[in-house]
Please model this.
Amino acid sequence: MSHRAAVGLMLLVTLLWSSAGVVSRQLQQAQGFEVTFWRSAFTALALVPLLLWLRGRALFTALRSGGWSLWASGVFWALQFSAFMLALTMTSVANVLVTMSLGPLLTALFARSFLHQRLAGRTWIAILLASLGIGWMFAQQAQLGQGWQGMLVALCVPLGAAANWCLLQAVAARSPGRTGADMLPAVLLGATLSAVCLLPLAWPLRANAQDLAWLSSLGLFQLAVPCLLVVHLMRVLPAHEVALLGQMETLLGVLWAWLFAGETPGPAALMGAALVLLALAINELLAPRVPAPVA
Model:
């Protein structure tokens, strides 16, 4: 897979991820922990046939013999799944996505510290611009004194993602000749752990049929499919670039919430989003155009 194709596929992943905020605003009765439980449960249910199709019986072997890295990745996925939807029930879509946009900076710092990856100058410039945009948005929201609890919960998402991307990158580097499917079951583990841990907090369940339809669509299209894709892309793209491209979720998520859920972003959100978009453009336009090794 070429670098350009991998970037295009990662942008598709962010498009699917960005649907969570606007879909969560269509729910009628499900709230709080129940929203997170149902999304994780439906994700696990969707992943079972998908992984059986991709891996066959080898799926069960991978789950039994995956080792600490598979289970650690599963814990990181569970943290991201749980914190994201819970934060959306506590504050606005823009607040959650702004906080999550700390991901590239955290991932770059984790990769530099634990993987000893040298970052290109263009990447540092892009991270700086994105961080300035996010910091501006965060400061404006903090002045209003609203939604800070949700933003604190949302902070768990970029922390878990940064650790997970670096772990997946390390596993890919350790076994360059393999396809990377050995870490796919970690997504199933994460969804299952999230659902099991949140069920006692979500009980009694109140979701109606319409809520379950929306949440099942999130489980399949907003989590199961894109998360499997991103595990594969870690074989082609470095961790910090995956995190930086993931910032398109911020722009798209705020846009969908604005257009379809009536959550109008203020001038600070628009200015911050513009800086994030500029950062993405600089990073990709200045990237060297050399063929990537076949994954």
Q: What stands out?
A: Confidence is low (pLDDT under 50) at residues 290-295. The radius of gyration is 18 Å. The chain has 15 helices and no strands.
